[in-house]
Amino acid sequence: MLRDSDPVVQVQGAIGLAKLGPEARDAAPELAAALKSTHTLVREQAAHALGQIGGDARATVPALTAALSDPEWSVRRHAAMALGKMGRDARDAIPKLEKLSRDPDHLVRKAAVEALGSIRR
Questions:
Q1: Which of these, 115, 117, 95, lies nearest to 107 by C-alpha position?
Q2: C-alpha to C-alpha distance for 84 and 108, rounded to whole angstroms
Q3: I need a surface site. Which of 6, 11, 44, 101 has the fewest CB within 10 A?
Q4: What are φ and ψ of residue 14, in 5° steps?
Q5: How far is it, in rounded angstroms, from Cα 91 to Cα 24?
Q6: For position 57, what pLDDT does the model report?
Q7: Is the CB of residue 39 less than 8 Å from the CB of residue 73?
Q8: What does the H/E/C string look like for the chain?
């Protein structure tokens, strides 16, 4: 579904993978690729799904870190939350998360601060 040309189908695929959580770890590379979609909801739901997969998706830390610079606040927020769920495996994202803790959006700032707390434990 993530490879479908219809972004609605891609979003539905990401939502389904998020519900599977760690069992969807084999889809992590496809979800990381979806973080570059031209559709905001696809990027947002891909980041959310990677967070639900958690530490089993640690290879996607660079893609999620790049998503912290997304122009859409909701994508930045979900990327930060996903990195927080990866804990210490996401420590390379600390500098970007520190910068994000000063984001104009309060929900993004909150997600960044919480992610930093989880990563630094």
A1: 115
A2: 12
A3: 6
A4: -65, -40
A5: 23
A6: 86
A7: no
A8: CCCCCCHHHHHHHHHHHHHHHHHHHHHHHHHHHHCCCCCHHHHHHHHHHHHHHHHHHHHHHHHHHHHCCCCCHHHHHHHHHHHHHCHHHHHHHHHHHHHHCCCCCHHHHHHHHHHHHHHHC
Contact 85, 47 (CB under 8 A): no
Tens-place pLDDT, residues 59-69 = 999 999 999 99
Residues in the chain: 121
Burial of 1 (0-12, 13-18, 19+ CB in 10 A): middle
pTM: 0.95
Q: At what angle do helices 40-53 and 7-20 cross, to 10 degrees?
A: 10
> Do 96 and 90 touch, CB atoms closer than 8 A?
no
